[in-house]
């Protein structure tokens, strides 16, 4: 009989032990924020299908102070979601070679963020014009 | 006791051992191979080798040039027929490594690149950045996984050879994870356990380089040859001893003293060159460069650093960061991490440190030792190619050339002999187990192994350093005899079975004391200076010179149980190259030209 | 002459033959600024307790032996320095996510098996004899895989990976980096053969892109990239198998 007695350590509370993992759990959780917002929009679509009165009630509900606060929180979550998603983007892509050299991860992340901000602003501008 | 029956047992899983295992497997897939290593193979010290592996590549180069560089570099103590075989097989084996995936650095057009190295007339050092040993080792380890006939015994510590009927019959090893003993029978045993430089205080070597296989063969009557020749590498990190590859100099680095002066021009390596020129200045052989360091220190021209001690400076600044990061990435990181130095901006303090054991288990040109069935390869062996001083990048080639040869020979031998008598071998193995267990279980001792180890290492540095005298070497011989006695009185803190490194390090210390004694006694017996063995004494300073009349001979150390080794002298095989004045720099070029003219 | 500095090193000790569970012990170690954590451990072993057990060899971050958790972060102890923690106490523990055999030594057999399972050797696309010399490999082809050859098998990435911690069967970052190294080597033609392992239950889909493996890798191998690039490769391979019986992607 061997005298070995390997000891297996517990994984309980693993994510609390390292700031890197805490941040990981936070940015993973922002997916729930995005899902929550999608749900609000889904409700809107359903209300739209139920007629003008239902649609207007939904729109009014959205204007309440609670709803505004809620939306700001969800917006913050969605922004952090986008940021952290793009931070991890470089590891999912094959190397991008420009001029014989591999593009640094910061360049890839930065470019994606720039595109996201530009697209967001463009969309906002479009909606603003339509609304006016 | 666990028992395993193999055809070929290989002790040591570094470059040489792995190459031999692959050779046996390829020669006959039906042969059972046991590869026994006290560490996982990728931890073997081959991994730390940096500069590259020499093999004729350029059309302007020739086997003859490589031959003459090697024999001259060895100060004519090489077995010249073996060197001829070595230089011929070198390009073959290095190409084989490439086929197996080794990421040799390339030229623009996709061929394997070669670089300049110390003591080599033409660039012939194949290199993989400055991590050549790492890449060679990982290539061999990963390739070895292809062969199901290789059974690895990872983290099994070999404690003795089995010998019966006048031949070797296997090994006994401790499974480190459980403390249990295992007998591994084998009709051929190849020792590939590496060098013994850890007997010295400051070295480039990892903790595992303790001369295990050398001691095992030695105790079974095999001679350890040329043990006095210990290579000091000129550019090591002070205190840790970590290696800054010769390639730093091959790529154009300078060595300067406290006046910023490239002092090597004062030691027969000049005249001064502004670009690296083969066999000149910083591209001279290692023994000469390390000796120059010693002389500079005597003259008070080294930098006396308050923490690091006596150093000279390795100047790489003129190569620029981009080039350094591409060609010398590992040493760049080492300078930054360990010393907080940016080599592109500041000079690196370095000094000579112990690096390589030229000597080892005496074997013939087929890697066979005097004990039938026993073979030795790599740094633990003395096959005859390095002589009194090894040229950089010859040893990475050595492990694959002789790994292949020994594998083939061991396979042939295993098929030609009958298996041993397992019952009586088991009795032998049990006696070995008792002896090694006693080391652990005995009580009442008062000596700590770490103290004995440190005293040994200090004494070896003092007595068997770059320059030696009768009195310093004698002091070391006496000290080692004292430490041998004191070793009998050790007490281990750890008496357990599982992962008892206290116990295993005691066994290693036992090996080291034996090997250290062969080094010290061989050194004091050689009354001349040759290659890496340099003396300052003798009647009318006679021993400062090379003495081809009396000492164009190998030293052979034989085990004397309970006493100092007996030193004998053996003949050197000379074929094409008669001993000459060993010249480098401008003098070397002149000597080369004269030799060429006279060999019309 | 300045005073001798003393640092407290807290070690998680475990002796399987006498302990039920690991427990901490604190040692007061005199040190100088150049000393690494490894040298601190060696000091304890040489002077206080010879039974302290840890793997080590090269001392220059190339053999991969000396990994341990240092203040909760996986590091190579030979290139981590006591001066950076002083005057605080430094705590060392065996690499996370592996069973502890003794003190700082963990059971690496599972990792070794994974390395062996991925066919980590060249299966040549085209045969070539030695007489024909080396395969030609352009700088571009060289750069496609060379980064992944730097792995020293130190397993810091496994200690960093919570998915491996939760599921020890996950092939993990290091083995995937080696697999990817061979797939990307222009001399090799066996990417398809290795795909089965990539897409298996123990394969890349266990990875949830935490990315800590690449953070801790001492050799900048970027194993996270090796794993995640192969998610796309595995998906491509899966769909192509529908289109053609041979399937296959590279």
In words, what does this structure look like?
The complex is a heterotrimer of chains A (132), B (600) and C (250). Chain A is mainly alpha-helical. Chain A contains 4 helices and 2 strands. In chain A, strand 1 and strand 2 (101-102) form a beta hairpin. The model of chain A has no long low-confidence stretch (mean pLDDT 94). With 600 residues, chain B is an alpha/beta fold. Chain B folds into 3 domains: 2-229 and 358-421, FAD/NAD(P)-binding domain (3-Layer(bba) Sandwich); 231-354, Alpha-Beta Complex (Flavocytochrome C3, Chain A, domain 1); 429-546, Fumarate reductase/succinate dehydrogenase flavoprotein-like, C-terminal domain (Methane Monooxygenase Hydroxylase, Chain G, domain 1), CATH 1.20.58.100. In chain B, the strands form 6 sheets. Chain B has a 5-stranded parallel β-sheet, with helices on both faces. A 5-stranded mixed β-sheet of chain B has the order 20-18-12-23-24. In chain B, strands 13, 14, 15, 16 and 17 form a 5-stranded antiparallel β-sheet that branches. In chain B, strand 9 (167-175) and strand 10 form a beta hairpin. Chain B is globular, with a radius of gyration of 23 Å. The relative contact order of chain B is 0.17. The mean pLDDT of chain B is 96. Chain C has a 5-stranded mixed β-sheet with strand order 2-1-5-3-4. A two-stranded antiparallel ribbon of chain C has the order 6-7. Chain C contains 9 helices and 7 strands; from the N terminus they run E-E-H-E-E-E-E-E-H-H-H-H-H-H-H-H. Chain C has helices at 37-48, 109-117, 139-145, 156-160, 162-166, 172-184, 191-198, 212-216, 223-243; strands at 5-13, 23-31, 67-70, 73-76, 90-93, 100-102, 105-106. In chain C, helix 6 crosses helix 9. In chain C, strand 6 and strand 7 form a beta hairpin. Chain C has 250 residues and is an alpha+beta fold. Chain C folds into 2 domains: 5-106, Beta-grasp domain (Ubiquitin-like (UB roll), Roll); 109-243, Alpha-helical ferredoxin (Fumarate Reductase Iron-sulfur Protein, Chain B, domain 2). The interface between B and C is large, with 59 and 62 residues.
């Amino acid at each position: 009989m061997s005298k070995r007695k390997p000891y297996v350590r517990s994984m309980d509370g693993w994510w609390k032990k390292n700031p890197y993992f805490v941040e990981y759990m936070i940015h993973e959780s922002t997916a729930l924020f995005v899902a929550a917002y999608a749900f609000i929009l889904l409700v809107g679509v359903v209300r739209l299908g139920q007629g003008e009165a239902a649609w207007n009630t939904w729109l009014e509900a959205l204007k309440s102070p609670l709803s505004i606060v809620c939306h700001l929180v969800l917006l913050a979550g969605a922004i952090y979601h986008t940021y952290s998603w793009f931070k991890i983007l470089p590891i999912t892509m094959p190397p991008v070679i420009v001029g014989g050299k591999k593009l640094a991860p910061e360049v890839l992340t930065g470019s994606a963020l720039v595109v996201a901000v530009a697209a967001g602003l463009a969309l906002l501008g479009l909606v603003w014009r339509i609304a006016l | 006791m666990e028992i395993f029956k193999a055809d070929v047992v290989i002790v040591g899983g570094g470059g040489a051992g792995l190459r031999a295992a692959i050779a046996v497997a390829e020669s006959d897939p039906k042969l059972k191979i046991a590869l026994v290593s006290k560490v996982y193979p990728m931890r073997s010290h081959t991994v730390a080798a940096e500069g590259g592996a020499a093999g004729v590549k350029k059309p302007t180069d020739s086997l003859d040039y490589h031959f003459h560089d090697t024999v001259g570099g060895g100060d004519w103590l090489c077995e010249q027929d073996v060197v001829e075989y070595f230089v011929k097989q070198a390009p073959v084996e290095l190409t084989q490594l490439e086929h197996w995936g080794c990421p040799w650095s390339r030229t623009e057009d996709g061929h394997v690149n070669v670089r300049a190295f110390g003591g080599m007339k033409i660039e012939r050092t194949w290199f993989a950045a400055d991590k050549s040993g790492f890449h060679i080792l990982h290539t061999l380890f990963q390739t070895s996984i292809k062969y199901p006939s290789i059974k690895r015994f990872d983290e099994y510590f070999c404690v003795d050879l089995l010998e019966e009927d006048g031949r070797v019959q296997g090994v006994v090893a401790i499974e480190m994870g459980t403390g249990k003993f295992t007998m591994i029978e084998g009709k051929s045993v190849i020792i590939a356990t590496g060098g013994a430089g850890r007997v010295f205080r400051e070295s480039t070597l990892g903790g595992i380089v303790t001369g295990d296989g050398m001691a095992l063969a030695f105790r079974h009557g095999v001679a350890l040859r040329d043990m006095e020749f210990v290579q000091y590498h000129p550019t090591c990190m002070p205190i840790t001893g970590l290696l800054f590859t010769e390639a730093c100099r091959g790529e154009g680095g300078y060595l300067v003293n406290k006046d910023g002066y490239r002092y090597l021009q004062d030691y027969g390596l000049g005249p001064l060159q502004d670009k690296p020129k083969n066999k000149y200045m910083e591209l001279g052989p290692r023994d000469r460069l390390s000796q120059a360091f010693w002389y500079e220190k005597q003259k008070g021209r080294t930098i006396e650093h308050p923490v690091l001690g006596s150093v000279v400076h390795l100047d790489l600044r003129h190569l620029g960061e981009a080039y350094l990061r591409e060609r010398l990435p590992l040493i760049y990181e080492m300078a930054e991490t360990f010393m907080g130095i940016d080599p592109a901006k500041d000079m690196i303090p370095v000094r000579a440190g112990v690096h390589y054991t030229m000597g080892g288990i005496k074997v013939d040109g087929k890697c066979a030792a005097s004990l039938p069935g026993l073979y030795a390869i790599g740094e633990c062996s003395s096959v005859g190619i390095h002589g009194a001083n090894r040229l950089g990048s010859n040893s990475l080639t050595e492990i694959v050339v002789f790994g292949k040869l020994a594998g083939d020979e061991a396979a042939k031998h295993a098929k030609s002999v009958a298996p041993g008598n397992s019952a009586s071998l088991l009795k032998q193995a049990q006696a070995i187990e008792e002896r090694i267990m006693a080391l652990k279980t005995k009580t009442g001792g008062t000596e700590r192994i770490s103290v004995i180890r440190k005293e040994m290492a200090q004494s070896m540095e003092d007595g068997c350093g770059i320059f030696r005298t009768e009195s310093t070497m004698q002091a070391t011989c006496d000290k080692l005899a004292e430490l041998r006695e004191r070793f009998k009185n050790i007490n281990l803190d750890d008496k357990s079975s599982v992962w008892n490194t206290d116990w295993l390090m005691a066994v290693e210390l036992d090996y080291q004391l034996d090997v250290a004694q062969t080094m010290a006694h061989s050194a004091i017996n050689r009354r001349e200076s040759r290659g890496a063995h340099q003396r300052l004494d003798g009647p009318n300073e006679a021993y400062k010179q090379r003495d081809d009349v009396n000492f164009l001979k190998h030293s052979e150390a034989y085990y004397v149980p309970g006493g100092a080794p007996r030193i004998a002298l053996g003949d050197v095989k000379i074929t094409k190259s008669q001993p000459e004045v060993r010249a480098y720099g401008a003098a070397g070029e002149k000597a080369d030209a004269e030799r060429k003219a006279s060999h019309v | 002459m300045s005073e001798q500095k003393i640092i407290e090193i807290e070690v998680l000790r475990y002796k399987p033959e006498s302990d039920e569970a690991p427990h901490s012990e604190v040692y007061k170690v005199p040190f100088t600024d150049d000393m690494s954590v490894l040298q601190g451990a060696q000091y304890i072993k040489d002077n206080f307790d010879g039974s302290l057990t840890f793997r080590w060899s090269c001392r220059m971050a190339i053999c991969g032996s000396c990994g341990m958790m240092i203040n909760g972060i996986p590091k190579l102890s030979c290139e981590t320095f006591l001066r950076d923690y002083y005057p605080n106490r430094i705590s060392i523990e065996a690499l996370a996510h592996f069973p502890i055999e003794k003190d700082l030594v963990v059971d690496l057999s599972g990792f070794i098996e994974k390395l062996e399972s991925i066919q980590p050797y060249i299966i040549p696309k085209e045969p070539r004899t030695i007489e024909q010399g080396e395969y030609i490999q352009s700088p571009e082809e060289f750069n496609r895989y060379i980064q992944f050859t730097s792995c020293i098998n130190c397993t810091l990435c496994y200690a960093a990976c919570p998915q491996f911690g939760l599921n020890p069967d996950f092939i993990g970052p290091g083995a995937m980096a080696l697999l990817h190294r061979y797939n990307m080597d222009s001399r090799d033609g066996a990417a398809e053969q290795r795909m089965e392992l990539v897409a298996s239950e123990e394969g890349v889909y266990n990875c949830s892109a935490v990315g800590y493996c690449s953070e801790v890798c001492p050799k900048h191998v970027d194993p996270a990239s090796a794993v995640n690039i192969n998610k796309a490769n595995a998906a491509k391979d899966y769909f192509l198998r529908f289109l053609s019986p041979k399937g296959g992607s590279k």
